[in-house]
Design a protein that fits this description.
This protein is about 25% helix and about 20% strand. It contains 8 helices and 11 strands. A 7-stranded mixed barrel has the order 2-5-6-10-11-9-8. The chain starts with 5 loop residues before the first helix and ends in an 11-residue tail after the last strand.
Length: about 375
């Protein structure tokens, strides 16, 4: 038995405190507007009943590097930062504090469908594929809160994630910068096509396959802070690893994009028949690239550089984590009495009528991961 683990969701809320790749696979925070419709799918078994997987990302010159701390390992970038701060050097500190070129970010990944609502109330699945929402911790807390409601829990074992009786969420964002506030509200019950539920979206495996070696990330951060050259050997190994990732990414896209058109530059949207008046949505979702920001050049420094920090374990070029593979579904959380609720109106059903549209070729986005 499976089902959402509400105790685990609440525990995750307690731990939530306080930037995204150019690919149709991800929904970035900047894509969320006044009303962005998102439909979470049933999470992978290895998430133990939670909808999200937390990913720690370091941004260096606008390039994301997933931290090994995401998987409970020591992070070499974190150690290098600690050593750099200990120098108490003004130039190095300036680079560390330049949040346009260097920062750390926590992303809460949630698999689901991004929906678009037309003027006549018809819904369509954007890019006709399952995507990954890169939610800020504050947005995840609002999503979890929506999942606790009686209406969401009454939808079934998987709550708002249920395929036939689950709920579309209306995500919203107001403010900018540190004053940004996110919200998530139940919007409408919609039955989703079964084709989007044939394969689990293994968020942990996707993050794992995106990892770069610790040795390479150490060379990257020292290049940024001290203008050290990245050894050719590490560059060659990273290039080889990227080739492996491209193969993984193509296989992944084949799963999350069940009806990929013959020409990859043509992406279809699935249409929904209107059954009830729906308030018009103003959202026009699309894949958004990062704003171009001039990189801060690495400043040569005459200060004595700290010795390279090392980790408890030797660097390994091969990923040390076991492949998720087939995972047994977790035991169901202790069930509470299902709250009585009025019988909901039959959920709208998304049909499989296909209408062609255009989108960027996802192959072109691989190098930006």
């Amino acid at each position: 038995m499976g089902g959402l683990n509400y105790d685990a969701l609440r525990e995750a809320d307690k731990e939530l405190g306080s930037k995204g790749e150019k690919t149709p696979l991800f929904i970035q925070p900047k894509q969320i507007g006044e009303k962005t419709l998102f439909r979470p799918v049933i999470p992978a078994a290895n998430l133990d009943g939670k909808m999200h997987f937390e990913v720690i990302v370091w941004w260096i010159k606008k390039t994301p590097y997933i931290s090994w701390k995401t998987f409970g390992r020591e992070c070499i970038i974190e150690k290098e930062v600690e050593a750099a701060k200990a120098l108490e050097d003004a130039d190095v500190n300036e680079l560390l504090e330049d949040d346009k070129s260097f920062s750390m970010d926590k992303q809460e990944w949630v698999a689901g469908l991004l929906l678009k609502e037309s003027d006549d109330g018809r819904l369509s699945v954007v890019d006709k594929m399952v995507k990954i929402l890169q939610a800020k911790p504050t947005l995840l807390k609002r999503i979890n809160k929506a999942s606790y409601t009686k209406m969401a829990q009454a939808a079934g074992e998987w709550g708002l994630c249920e395929r036939e009786t689950g709920w579309v969420l209306a995500l919203s964002k107001i403010g900018t910068g540190r004053d940004t506030e996110y919200d998530a509200q139940l919007h409408e019950q919609v039955e989703m096509p079964a084709k989007y539920y044939k394969h689990e979206v293994d968020l942990r495996e996707i993050a794992k396959q995106s990892l770069k070696s610790q040795a390479y990330m150490q060379a990257v951060i020292r290049n940024y802070l001290y203008a050290e050259e990245i050894p050719d050997e590490l560059e060659a190994k990273e290039k080889a690893r990227q080739e492996k990732f491209k193969t993984f990414y193509k296989e992944l896209m084949a799963k999350v994009r069940p009806d990929a058109p013959k020409k990859e530059s043509e992406v279809a949207e699935t249409k929904v028949a209107k059954k009830a008046p729906v308030k018009k949505a103003s959202i026009e979702p699309e894949d958004i690239d990062f704003e171009e920001v001039e990189d801060t050049p690495a400043k040569p420094t005459a200060v004595k550089k700290p010795a390279k920090p090392t980790l408890d374990d030797e660097f390994e070029d091969d990923l040390p984590f076991e492949s998720a593979g087939a995972v047994k579904k977790p035991a169901a959380a202790t069930k509470k009495a299902t709250p009585k609720a009025a019988t909901p109106a039959k959920a709208r059903k998304i049909t499989d009528d296909v209408e062609e549209t255009t989108s960027d070729d996802f192959e072109d986005d691989i190098d930006d991961l």
